[in-house]
Amino acid sequence: MSIISFWSPFAGTGTTSNALISAYAMALHYRTRILLVNTGATGSSIEAALPPTEIEDADSLFRFEEGGWDAIERLYISGSLNKHNLCDYTKPLLKERLDLLTGRINQMERSPKEYRETLKTLLQVANEYYDLVLMDAGSSAVNESLLLEQTDYVVVNLSQNMRELEVFFEHILPNYLSGQKVHLVLNKYDPNAKASISNIRRRFRYKGSISILPYTTGFLDAVNRRDAATYLLLEGLSDNKNVRKGSFTASMAELARLIMDAAGMRTALKRLERGA
Description:
Layout: E1 2-7, H1 15-29, E2 34-37, H2 52-55, H3 68-78, E3 91-94, E4 98-101, H4 112-126, E5 132-136, H5 144-148, E6 153-158, H6 162-176, E7 181-189, H7 197-204, E8 209-214, H8 217-224, H9 228-236, H10 248-262
Parallel strand pairs: 1-5, 1-6, 2-4, 2-5, 6-7, 7-8
Antiparallel strand pairs: 3-4
Helix pairs in contact: 1-9, 1-10, 8-9
């Protein structure tokens, strides 16, 4: 299993959206089982882009108070959390491919040590059941460093703001992320801007993994309607072999491939063949 955190040192760079996009892209394109984790409050972060019925179905036995982080912490305290019951407290978004661990209802104070131990146990158990665990580190209610220290791979979300890019490449990357494997995503990418991928590589002499997600009105509208799941399913399942390079659909597939490669997972997990 690989643990992947989506993070940004800057606000408004689409960390949560990119975590959701990546989760659907990898689940739709590869034979993999993924756990997507909301580390913040219930109803926030990833959950805010999904319809309430995706998270809590009136006809199901699942309820917020019976699942999510609150349930995981109760199981951890009782010593009964294991690979056989973990998925019982998550919500399936794509059957046998993608599960969501919802956030907290209970906002009772917990020490960093308590949170760290719960998180470590969760990840150890998830390692026995899931191929990948994706965490939205940008919306956590706790110190994000606790999440990043448990991470195998960090997807760093950035914009084309040159002042922010200077701070990132000159200070944050060498000092804060020097020991981490990273992939950079430029969100709401404008191909006509001077801060293009090629110019960024040249300006900062960056040779690492980098990709884009273009500004897409359809996805923004879907998030606002709380219908991001439907939009991502339609885009991810597109069979059009002539998809334009740089489009949302093509960028979604490329992001999945690059993350899977860099996390060392693509050779282990077979790509799905459409119609198979």
